[in-house]
Design a protein that fits this description.
By secondary structure, this protein is an alpha+beta fold. Helices cover 28% and strands 18% of the residues. It has a domain of 47 residues. The strands form 2 sheets. The protein has a 3-stranded antiparallel beta sheet, with no helix packed on it. Strands 4-5-6 form a 3-stranded antiparallel beta sheet, with no helix packed on it. The mean pLDDT is 81. The structure holds zinc ion.
Length: 236
Amino acid sequence: MFLNKGPLALIKLLTKDGILQKPTKCPHCASASVGPLKYCKQWNGYVYRCSKRACHCRIWPHGFHPIFYHSKGKGSDLNMQASVLFCATVGIPQVSTHLLFDVDAKVVARIYNNLDAARAKFVHRQEKAIAYGGWCDVEADEVDLGKGFLDDTTDGQKKGVTTAWEQWGALVERGRPESLRLFRLNPAATNTRAPGPGPICKRVTWEKLHYTKVYDLKLPDGPLLVREMLKTLMSA
Ligand SMILES: [Zn+2]
């Protein structure tokens, strides 16, 4: 479809499909005087030419394109790039495309990456205009408000499931609190979790001071000590 087309037929086909566009302004001097597509012997291809006297710049039909790029190589000419883009848009994986055309993986990767970047740029630009059901910017969240313990012996209940959760969801349009919608969720009952060690944190605790009385005693010497001891014993 793309590989065997001549250069002019390919450019016409891509322009008809809206993939290529005739530049409305010259990218070099910004003047609106861009001439028709003509064959250029010097560049060996079909180009547009700015007709402003001070500029006269030539522009490739795929120059300044968000996905295509200009390359003189045989495996990465416009025919191949268009074929790779076709594969990328119909959902063929990047690896398969590389094997299918037997071309350098870099050519395929470049087209696939450029397509992704172009899509992301488009979504970024259109993001503000995208609306869901008349709402513009919606926030949604859920919260657990409590839990209850189920009787383990209840019939029709999965064995070992012991905890039921009270869970609510909410939707609100950003900047319009009156649009808040609350709805009760029905989460599945779960097992009881094993008790953990609890939050681990370094706590500082204050202890009351303990005072001790200091004694200053003078003990007698060796023989004296024995004499004193005997005296005490005798008197007792
Ligand atoms: Zn120009």
